[in-house]
Amino acid sequence: MKPLVQVHNITAAYDNNVVLSNVNLDVNENDFIGIIGPNGGGKTTLLKIIIELLKPASGVIKKDPNLKIGYLPQVNSIDKQFPITIRDVILSGRFVNDKWWSKPSKQTLQKVDELLEFIGLKNVHNMPIGELSGGQMQRIFLCRALMSNPNLLILDEPNTYVDKTFEASLYNLLGELNKDMAILLVSHDVGTISSMVKTIACVNGGLHYHHSNKITNEVLQSYNCPIELVSHGHVPHRVLKHHEHE
Ligand SMILES: Nc1ncnc2c1ncn2[C@@H]1O[C@H](COP(=O)(O)OP(=O)(O)OP(=O)(O)O)[C@@H](O)[C@H]1O
């Protein structure tokens, strides 16, 4: 098992407000880790530290020299008014590998076409992103994350807006991609996460790692945070699991 990222004893804070303390996490090649936890627990903050958008207040992060990260941010954090087309968003993912002044290669342009085909937006590739739905934005930014052929794919709630049909193909795709890359997936949909990922990390101010994808009663009790269970049905609803000490 080759480690791609090793997070050692990280503390993260915004101004003086500490949101993560003493967090440890190893991400190895071909891992598929589901990150769960309550709103405001620090999941996105952990991702931002791994991709170096945020500096930890203390602690160390070690990265494999060949690490290449593809990142899909939360769609509601993206400025839809930014004047850029669907094609150019996807194409911009190449800058993880390419210099900003270089011309895209034939293979790169072909890859953009394949990705556009996959998400069913080839016919509207010149549309500005301001005209897109949340689900379409999520698909486009997933493609952007895949443009660099990453060996670590980081997804922050990729299924918030996508419809059930695309969600199924998204999950199939992630299963396929995991043969060639590690995946870190933040989601509130614990039921789905449990059926896809290999291991689970619960983030709530700290991090509790579980070496399995099975969410049993024992697991729920061993976590130091409540877990949202999403129940699908005629009326989708969420059930919040409380711990005995709460
Ligand atoms: N840029 C920021 N400045 C100040 N505080 C922030 C900032 N970003 C996040 N926070 C705070 O840090 C805490 C953790 O936020 P974070 O977004 O990491 O949680 P999360 O687990 O991803 O939540 P959610 O499930 O709602 O997306 C929250 O209390 C949040 O308000």
From TrEMBL:
Name listed for the protein in its UniProt record: Metal ABC transporter ATP-binding protein
Residue ranges of every copy of the ABC transporter domain listed in the record: 5-229
Family annotation (PANTHER family): METAL TRANSPORT SYSTEM ATP-BINDING PROTEIN TM_0124-RELATED (PTHR42734)
InterPro entries linked to this entry: AAA+_ATPase (IPR003593), ABC_transporter-like_ATP-bd (IPR003439), ABC_transporter-like_CS (IPR017871), Metal_Ion_Import_ABC (IPR050153), P-loop_NTPase (IPR027417)
Domain of life: Bacteria
Listed Pfam families: ABC_tran (PF00005)
Signal peptide (from-to): none
Upper taxonomic lineage: Bacteria, Pseudomonadati, Bacteroidota, Bacteroidia, Marinilabiliales
GO molecular function, one term: ATP binding
Protein keywords: ATP-binding, Nucleotide-binding, Transport
Family, per entry: Belongs to the ABC transporter superfamily.
Keyword ATP-binding: yes
